[in-house]
Amino acid sequence: MAAEHGPTAGEYIVHHLTHLQNQKPKSVMDFSVFNYDSIFWSITLGVVGCWLLWLAARKATSGVPGRFQAAVEVLVDMVDTQAKGIVHNAESRKLVAPLALTVFVWILLLNAMDLLPVDLLPVIFEKAYAIAGHDPHHAYMRVVPTADLSVTMGLSLGVLLVCLFYNVKIKGLGGWIHELFTAPFGSHPVLWPFNFLMQIIEFVAKTVSHGMRLFGNMYAGELIFMLITLMGGAWSLSATGIALAVGHIIAGSAWAIFHILIITLQAFVFMMLTLVYIGQAHDAH
Amino acid sequence: MEVISFVALAAGLIIGLGAVGACIGIGIMGSKYLEAAARQPELMNELQTKMFLLAGLIDAAFIIGTGIALWFATANPFLAQIANLPK
């Protein structure tokens, strides 16, 4: 076997940032590329989230609740309070409040994959890949689906579609089109192009920022975990080496604790903005 | 080589300037929250929820910028363009 060198720092990071894809993207936006790892982990964690909530729901008693049921009730109560405060239409809340709960729980689980050790699942996958007979150098696995722009933009596009649906349902198709051309500046025909332009910009900006906020947070968090891992990988029996190893443990713990706040906060922010955007679809300008 | 040095400078500027904006914004918002909590302590919990929401929103543009800058720093798309230029 030819002598191989271990990966350099740059190679290590690039390896960990590559998705398990059906083909390489030919440009920045290539819709024929599928990231199998993101798809697999999002579906798996969605099923796990549904299963956990189902476990609480099937044994729900109206008597004194157990700890697990109480925890789920706290969660559902929190989402319900926020939904009641933002979406004032009780009929819409029948769909929107469970949608907000789904978004919060799912994104929290997807984000929480970032807390696993950086190499754990990729190395397991690499071993399985090698046993199955493929070249282990191409065994890419990215385990945080929300660090994939496709997943977060997909979530925010889903929210946009729900908003458009509610716009048409509450205001009627004609009413909504009238609003597209006459709000926010006024109903004089001269202002119609500017109104329409502003409305389109508003929809695009809300959707893009919704998706990219979550992506940016998770991608940056994942990258910093990888850089901390490199610190640990560079340890040796010299003063610098031992300092790097100790620093790696301290920095890793501090960043992981801070990241617990970030993942919960970002899931909460995504849920609140979902509620706010759908609530805006109910308001007439 | 010039492209690499410019990309490194750009990544630093993106992260630094974004951090300036985000930190000043959080500072102003946090000070307003503390003033409000001091004036009306009974609203502290409700306002705290809203404060965290605003913190997430203020950090958004900065962290999007950091994500893009780190992307350029590691998997630089400009190098691929140079490699594809006709010789």
Q: How are the elements arranged and paired?
A:
The complex is a heterodimer of chains A (285) and B (87).
Chain A: H1 9-16, H2 36-58, H3 67-86, H4 90-112, H5 120-131, H6 149-171, H7 173-182, H8 192-233, H9 239-282
Chain B: H1 2-39, H2 44-74, H3 77-84
Transmembrane segments (chain B): 6-30, 51-73
Domain V-ATPase proteolipid subunit C-like (chain B): 9-71
GO molecular function, one term (chain B): lipid binding
Number of domains of chain A: 1
Number of helices of chain B: 3
- Number of domain modules of chain B: 1
Q: Which band does the percent of strand residues of chain A land in?
A: under 5%
* Strands of chain A, total number: 0
Number of strands of chain B: 0
* Helical percentage of chain A: over 70%
Tertiary shape of chain A: globular
What percent of residues of chain B adopt helix (DSSP H or I)?
Answer: over 70%
| Text of the CATH class of chain B | Mainly Alpha
Which structural class do the helices and strands of chain B define? mainly alpha
N-to-C CA distance of chain B: 17 Å
Principal-axis shape of chain B: rod-shaped
Structural class of chain A: mainly alpha
Major sheet attributes of chain A: none
The radius of gyration of chain A is: 23 Å
Distance between the termini of chain A: 71 Å
Average pLDDT rating of chain A: 89
CATH homologous superfamily caption of chain B: F1F0 ATP synthase subunit C
- CATH topological fold name of chain B: F1FO ATP Synthase
